[in-house]
Amino acid sequence: MNKLYKSLIYDKQVSLSVLETTELVNDAIKTHGLDDKSAELLGGLLTACAYMAGCLKSERGAVSITIKSGDESATVSVSGDINGNIRGYIDGGENGLKGGTMTVVKEDGLFRPFVGTCQLKCDDVAENLMQYFHISEQVPTAVAIGVRVKGGVCSVAGGVVMQLLPGTSEENMDRAENQMQHFVDVATVLENFGATGIMREFFADETCEKSVYLTSPAYKCNCSRKKIEGVLLSLGEAELFNIIAEQGKVSVHCHYCNTDYDFYDKDIRELLKK
């Protein structure tokens, strides 16, 4: 089961998140039929998105992260909502990422979305996420994310994230920095302990059952035939029948869940009657 533990530690001055996302990444591999390199790239970003979605406050909150390679050879896009529904896709990426940008869009459902962009430092999702928080949100954040995929199967995925809250003392900054050294190879630590074991082994003195919040993010797309119908209606009757005449059907593909929605002449006529 996927897990996201959240708690405040070190005199409630540091936000802690511990994730186990192996099942989530394997669901993405099955959905898209990914090679190992692409699966590791997408899996790292799905884990990052699960963390950021877990930080949303509004009931209508959502977050998306998009990476575009500098040579336009790869695009990775993930999104998630406050309910822990995470989804994503990768186009290219077999040979890694060669520079480029990472763009984060956060929506609270009430005001204009927050958009932050930073240049990619490397292929490592954790390094890029730390740079994003430093540049775009100006929040000191330590991130460790690890994903291992071999032969089309993810054996382990997850991470540990610590964020310093305003007013964090130097002593607690040092405590957080020292603790993060245990997660330099976070994939191995997760293999040995799992997310639950990490909480017990490394943070038992700082947390208790009442102070830990546990959720279960999952790979789930929010598309549906009904939602696609709403999009089609916005095209107008003339445009829809032009497409039918040229292609024999109106076809819409969802990249996130790799699903095709086909609408034929009869379907369009029934839709317009509604």
Helix and strand arrangement:
Blueprint: E1 3-9, E2 14-20, H1 22-32, H2 36-53, E3 62-69, E4 75-81, E5 85-91, E6 100-107, E7 114-119, H3 125-137, E8 141-150, E9 153-164, H4 170-180, H5 186-203, E10 213-215, E11 218-219, H6 225-233, H7 237-247, E12 250-254, E13 259-263, H8 265-273
Parallel strand pairs: 5-11
Antiparallel strand pairs: 1-2, 1-10, 2-9, 3-4, 3-6, 4-5, 6-7, 8-9, 12-13
Helix pairs in contact: 1-2
Task: Write a brief structural summary.
The protein is an alpha+beta fold. The protein has helices at residues 22-32, 36-53, 125-137, 170-180, 186-203, 225-233, 237-247, 265-273; strands at 3-9, 14-20, 62-69, 75-81, 85-91, 100-107, 114-119, 141-150, 153-164, 213-215, 218-219, 250-254, 259-263.
